[in-house]
TrEMBL record:
It holds the Pfam family Brix. This is Protein Peter pan. SMART domains: Brix (SM00879). Residues 235-259, 308-350 are annotated as: Disordered. GO terms for biological process: ribosomal large subunit assembly; rRNA processing.
Amino acid sequence: MGHKKGRCVKRNKQINVGEKEELVRAPHSFVFHRGLPGDHIVELTKDFRRVMEPFTASSLKIRKKNTIKDFVSVAGIFHISHICIFTKTELGMYLKLCRLPRGPTLTFKIHNFSLARDVVSMLKKQMVYEEAYKNAPLVILNNFSGEGMQLKLISSTFQNMFPTINLTTINLSTIRRCVCLNYNTTSKTIDFRHYAIKIVPTGLSRGVKKLVQAKVPNLSKCEDISDFLTKPTMSESEAEDDEISHVTLPQKLSSRGNHANSTSAIRLYELGPRITLQLIKVENGLLDGEILFHEFIHKTEEEKLTIRKKRAKKQKLKEKRRKIQEENKRKKEIQKQEHKEKSLKGIQKKRENDMLLQKIAKESAEESKLEDDDVQYYREEVGEEPDKDLFQTKIGTKRPQKHIIKYKSKKIKLDKS
């Protein structure tokens, strides 16, 4: 009897059925926290998940007994390409960005941060709506063109965490958020910001702007509709926006008043969180391997060569143990197969013996039936009862009790003289 598969196994086989190619190719991520507990790190993890929407596990549940191997084992099913781990220790908080399946791993120290709820509460005008999280954000990198392998690695890592944009086929209405990363050369820190993008038409008075955006105007102070339309008050976009933020739209947007080849202004509303990061370490593998860069520890070429030799020796020992384990596993499989064959032979032999006994019983039943037929035939032809020993087989009959000679042991009498 085979082992029955659970409903989770049956469900996993149907996960990738019917998915679009664009969704499969898009980078997906796991975001979770490890280390010491705390409310701030939990809230920060949830805020970072919101940044990575929609290609992230929004309701990912982590247990203490879960290891990195558990996430790596299921990463292929869900097309996971990156793992973001927030860790908290006694020295501070850190962020690890891991590229699956073989690395590299970037470790950042979090100097300070502000949660999304705190950032939004400080703004005078807030713009938080769920429609903005249905599409991936635009990544903007600033000042990452300096010297050093680590800067190129940081920029490529953050770019690969989000889907690429095809300028020829992109729909501008889907770009509603952006992630800005600014590198400070003096402090060697990275400012992480998250904004919502809003496009508003320019060159319109406040009254016309309300009509264009389908808002109901207040005409209580106007004698005529012309007074409302010709009011000299400048629009909010003309009063606050700079000319640098003015752009010419190449296509029509879904928002009202933004037509193709028209001038509009770009506004950014911060969504949070704010994070200040500093790159500490770059590892070649997945949370392991050769250290390619370290901010505080610098080793000489001799020390690097010694570390490589130790790592190579450790790798050889690991391979040797793996081969021994595979050999032992193979021997166990052979023993298991031999035991299985022996058990099958025993079962087969037992079946043959049972069949032989059944055959003998069947033959004896047939012989007794033939004897009964002979007795019945004799009665019909002769008209008398046959003798008892006429049709009985003499094989195996016991000797009568009267013919058995009983020997008695004689007692020897001793002469007393």
